Amino acid sequence: MSWLLVYPIIIPLLTAVLAYLFRNSPAGRWISVAGTVALLMASIMLMAEVLEQGVVAAQMSNWQAPFGITLVADLLGAVMVVITAITGLATVIYTLSEIPERMERLGFHALLQMLMVGVVGAFLTGDLFNLYVWFEVMLISSFGLLVLGGTREQLDGGIKYVMLNLVSTIMFLAGIGLLYGLTGTLNMADLHLAVRGVENTGLLTTIAVMFMVAFGVKAAMFPLFFWLPASYHTPPVAVSAIFAGLLTKVGVYALIRMFTLVFDQDVAFTHTILLWLAVVTMVTGVLGAAAMNDFRRILSFHIISQIGYMVLGLALYTPLGLMGAVFYLVHHIIVKANLFFVAGVAKRIAGSTDLARIGGLYAHAPLLAFLFLIPAFSLAGFPPLSGFWAKYVVVKAALDLEMWFVAGVALGVGLLTIFSMTKIWGSAFWPAHPDGIKPRLSDLPTFDRVALMLPIIALAALTCLIGLFPEPFVQFAERSANQLLDPTDYVTTVLGVQP
Amino acid sequence: MELLLAITIGVLVSTSVYLMLDRNVLRFLFGLVLLSNAVNLLIFTGGRLTAGAPPLIDAGEYAPTGVVANALPQALVLTAIVIGFGLLAFTLALVYRTYMTLGTVNSDEMRVAEPADESKLDTGRLGMGKANPAKPATGQEAGI
């Protein structure tokens, strides 16, 4: 049994327990930081192992698959864990300045660490019911984080977030029940083999669509995304950032996993639905963003629009398309979390996230303006930043299939993305502050300045790094896409037999 | 037996959908509870029903002899019940707190985070850790 797969789950779990015990002292927050650093190291070790071996699997309590719970990491799972750790660390450092002591006393850091337990668990599990459990761990922590503080807006957004996500979870559970009734197994690798022997293919496709709806809610796909713009702008910025970076992407990851590994029987039907949903998701998301006038609400709608690109990559179902989806996932998590961090600093020094009430950031905080432009341009797909390569691969995959309309929409949405970004630039950065305030970074205390700016600078550097040296990342995404399309390695490693 | 359970599940699901279409979030929550119970029954039925054959292994044996009931769905349902109970408790508390703070359980009236007039959204003070004074409303106003 490989402990490497257990560490990324058990480290944040232990950190959560310790952070809760020390929630009344300043030690709690530093435990949280240390635990996340440890998680990052563990995830990098796991990544090194996966790069060497291809797929790593561990049977819990030595119950042989498919009878026990399997933890498994392929390239996609491993890279998602690494990126979770990076985003988690950035968020925890950011919270050092942002989260008031009152919220720490209520167990903020314990909830944050439990959120990471759930996210990492979802990426590493090889068992469908176990995936449901990790989803629940993630959900209940996110509920707590979302409403912690208890302002009117938080409760209002929280109700919608909680209710719609619960419906999705029950739908997921119903899908699991039906799939189990049909195949008699819950191990995902075993399911890959078992669905091939199913005679009732109509029922299988119905179950596939149930999973599509369940994960579609999590991923905020059209027309199931309404909980996201209702809630993501209400909690503290650090919470918004980690939600924006990670949570919807867990839904996309689950979609990619299930619709490459298990539901690959009726691709013409299921993936065509995904394709058109992806197109509509891209368009509605970006139009929503164009209509908003609040920094964080614009960014929330952008998430939806970007989810469309990732699902599009999956829906095309070619090596290039999936490669684009994987690349997009990684790029998007970094960029999106970073944009929320920038919005948080803007709120801190200029006083609001309402674009009509702030201004003067370019004149008085040029560093922040520069650090906004990097992720903003990256999101819109400007070369040479990471978003350019991500969009390029997805659009190329669509063009290769001669889907001119889809490729055209993807490019047009990029243009509208930059339009809504100029809206932020044109009212928050360019003109003078309406109240005459001079929002300077140097007015912040030194500790806060470091804690707020360090994650932003680090994530922006990562975006530039991926953009300027895309070769190893593209190669990685390509290997990962091939692994997803031909899961023989995955199945063999988990079950220990040749299929 | 399967038919009976299938009908029960169907009735539960349709009742819960009816409840979930209500604007009152409390009714929505009741619908959710019914739906999760329907799904629990679904998993139970999906694992096949074998009457009168407890999955017990005789002393000295490593595997059960003969036909026994499938024990796995029961484990799954048990897990789902526990998780569902926790979520229900949390959600009930959340609905109560929302009712105390916003003074309504009607989802149409919950427009604080997304006001029709966007300039009324005051995110400037959000997350700064200042709780709002609770504004309790009478039960009659909220319709419960």
From TrEMBL, chain B:
Coiled coil: none
Listed GO CC annotations: plasma membrane
Location of region: Disordered: 116-144
Pfam families for this protein: Oxidored_q2 (PF00420)
Keyword Transmembrane: yes
Keywords of the record: Cell membrane, Membrane, Transmembrane, Transmembrane helix
Membrane topology, record value: Multi-pass membrane protein
Localization in the cell: Cell membrane
Transmembrane spans: 6-21, 28-51, 71-96
Family of the protein in this entry: Belongs to the CPA3 antiporters (TC 2.A.63) subunit C family.
Protein name: Na+/H+ antiporter subunit C
Organism of origin: Paracoccus hibiscisoli
